[in-house]
Amino acid sequence: MATLHYHPFCPHSRFVRLVLAELGLEPEMVEEKPWERRVPLLEVNPAGNLPLLIDDNGLAVPGSSVIAEYLDETYGDGLGDRRFLPRDVSQRVEVRRLVDWFLVKFHGEVSDYLATEKIYKRFMPVELGGGPPDMGAIRAARTNVRYHLKYIGYLIATRNWLAGQHLTYADLAAAAHLSIVDYLGDVPWDEDETAKHWYARIKSRPSFRALLADRVPGMPPWEHYDNLDF
User: Fold this and answer.
1) Prediction pTM value
2) CB count, 10 Å around CB of 190?
3) Where would a tag sit more exposed on the chain, N or C end, judged by fewer CB atoms within 10 A?
């Protein structure tokens, strides 16, 4: 059986969990605290980043984008038109562009700030960076999320899904990162109904159920977080 090392509120881990669920794969789940940088994890993945997939063939596949590419190479042909990384070259470029937008740009400007300052720091020891949140970082993330939300609305206004007519890795990556921000109540959904309706479609999928069941101890989610109709 494959094993996924993850943290429930690591947005990159959430992306891979969505992909695995969409593929109908149920690996053994091993929760990690990324700030601990456990030696056994570092021996397999020296970068220490999450998620880390150990396939049932023993192959260690580190990082969300590498895992996504690996799963496409392994299972993509069997999905036909439902492939999350399309066969057409131009479509693959667009999917990869948007995946990079959310895994790198959105993460660096929004979800990393909020996950670290509002969740991780609550459980990290002081010597590893734990303590009160940096309100400046939180304010920056809340400002940045607005233009990302507008961009999602712009894309969906002319497409069925973010990268085109079909659900792709772009949608799963975007929704995974937004789900962290939504849990914390920091997505201004009233500013873009088009983006809001797209997200409602995503979080209504069976693959999203496990994410909606996650809870931060002592910090309940925003009131609409697990309401499929907002």
Assistant:
1) 0.96
2) 7
3) N
| pLDDT tens digits for range 12-34 | 999 999 999 999 999 999 999 98
Query: What is the Cα gyration radius of the chain?
Result: 17
CA distance 224 to 211: 14
Distance CA 115, CA 8 (A): 11
CB distance 169 to 91 below 8 Å: no
CB 110 within 8 A of CB 188: no
**DSSP 3-state of 161:** strand
Do residues 29 and 4 touch, judged by C-beta distance below 8 A? yes
Burial of 39 (0-12, 13-18, 19+ CB in 10 A): exposed
For residues 88-96, give the mean pLDDT: 96
